[in-house]
Backbone:
């Protein structure tokens, strides 16, 4: 399945093929033509989940969308997911902490936005706690991750800062285990993952001069006005589209392991599948 979406979360094209890569050229050139016919400027950045860069200098994606000169960037969620191959299991109790810290190695919150949100939350707390001022810990506990995403911008750290932050994180979790002694990190695999992924730190950088956030409204909190922001970075709007795709394809869920030696009835006919 190949999907293309825009910064508004609209799906521009979705193609299901039996083999990966078939017809991509026509798909992408079709989108280029639609933009041209509609008089729309070419996108400033294209976020992808693979093929972000190439040894030859021009990424495969940039070629597919020629003559656009958009910056090609790697979606950070997909970059982070590649580190799963260096872990012993995603069900490790330290997995969530690792992912949160990895994300913090890549992104930095805008301190002015965070300060504004904290002031609003402080005022809200005071009015509901008879004028008492919360401690910093109490205040931070009232701010949900959805709230910080709605009101605060993030930007990517520079390449070298990212490199040393992720190296430091890997060092700090290298020997960590759960209570049964199971390591979080699979050493050889993680060495390989990190060696390969370092070349993509450049591909994660926010493109210079591109406004990745749009103000879509405001709301009142604690008597202060806060901006509601929408982020156009990455391909997360397509991720939610992925979750709906299973529903598009009707029929019995079947795979060869589950249906071996069992009978499935479709339209009154019986079929017996046997695993060869
Ligand atoms: Zn890359």
Residues:
């Amino acid at each position: 399945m190949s999907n293309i979406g825009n910064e508004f979360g609209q799906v521009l094209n979705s193609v299901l093929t039996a083999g990966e890569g078939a017809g991509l050229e026509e798909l992408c050139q079709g989108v280029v033509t639609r933009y041209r016919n509609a008089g729309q400027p070419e996108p400033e950045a294209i976020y992808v989940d693979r093929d972000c860069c190439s040894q030859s200098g021009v990424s495969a994606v940039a070629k597919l969308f020629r003559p656009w000169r958009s910056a090609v960037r790697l979606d950070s969620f997909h970059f982070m997911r590649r580190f799963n191959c260096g872990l012993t299991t995603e069900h490790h109790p330290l997995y969530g902490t690792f992912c949160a810290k990895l994300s913090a190695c890549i992104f930095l919150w805008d301190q002015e936005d965070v300060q504004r949100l904290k002031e609003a939350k402080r005022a809200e707390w005071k009015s509901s706690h008879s004028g008492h001022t919360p401690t910093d810990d109490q205040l931070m506990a009232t701010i949900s991750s959805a709230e910080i995403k709605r009101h605060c911008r993030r930007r990517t750290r520079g390449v070298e800062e990212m490199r040393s932050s992720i190296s430091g994180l890997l060092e700090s979790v290298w020997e960590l285990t759960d209570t049964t002694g199971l390591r979080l990190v699979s050493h050889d695999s993680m060495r390989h993952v990190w060696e390969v992924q370092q070349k993509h730190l450049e591909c994660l950088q926010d493109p210079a001069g591109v406004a990745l956030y749009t103000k879509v409204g405001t709301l009142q909190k604690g008597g202060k006005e806060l901006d509601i922001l929408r982020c156009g970075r990455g391909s997360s709007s397509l991720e939610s589209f992925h979750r709906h795709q299973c529903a598009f394809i009707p029929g019995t869920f079947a795979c060869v392991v589950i249906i071996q030696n069992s009978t499935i009835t479709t339209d009154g006919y019986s079929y017996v599948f046997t695993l060869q």
Remarks:
- The chain is about 40% helix and 20% strand.
- The two ends are 28 Å apart (CA to CA).
